[in-house]
Amino acid sequence: MKAYVLIETAAGKTKNVKNTLTKVKGNKATVVAMDAVTGPYDFIAVVDGAPLDAIGNLVTESIGTIDGVTRTTTCVAVAIG
């Protein structure tokens, strides 16, 4: 499964969040790509893993707890026939 995690950071914490995000790995899910973006979010991370709970755990336990992360929004990728 693949998900896009939209990440907002606190002012002055963007570099710390970037450095930490590049090292995030879970047991069954991991951050496979990440980009800094403009707009309401500071980063978009691509997370890959299975099952869906593994992605949820990575977001809540590893990404959401990074010092400087103020909010995350997770968008699960789906196939449209």
Compact description:
With 81 residues, the protein is of the alpha+beta class. The chain has helices at residues 14-21, 52-63, and strands spanning 2-9, 29-36, 43-49, 69-76.
Descriptive tags:
alpha+beta; 38% strand; 4 strands; 81 residues; 4-stranded antiparallel β-sheet; 2 helices; globular
Architecture overview:
Helix content is 25%, strand content 38%. With 81 residues, it is an alpha+beta fold. It has a four-stranded antiparallel β-sheet with strand order 2-3-1-4. Strand 2 and strand 3 form a beta hairpin. The chain starts with a strand and ends in a 5-residue tail after the last strand. The model has no long low-confidence stretch (mean pLDDT 94).
The profile of the biggest β sheet is: 4 strands, antiparallel
Percent of residues in helical segments?
10-25%
Alpha-beta classification: alpha+beta
Strand element count: 4
Which percent band covers the strand fraction? 35-45%
Number of helices: 2
| Radius of gyration over C-alpha positions, nearest whole angstrom | 12 Å
Lateral arrangement of strands in the main beta sheet: 2-3-1-4
Give the overall shape.
Answer: globular
The string of secondary-structure elements, in order, is EHEEHE
Write the layout of secondary structure elements.
Layout (H helix, E strand, L loop, with lengths): L1 E8 L4 H8 L7 E8 L6 E7 L2 H12 L5 E8 L5
Antiparallel strand pairs: 1-3, 1-4, 2-3
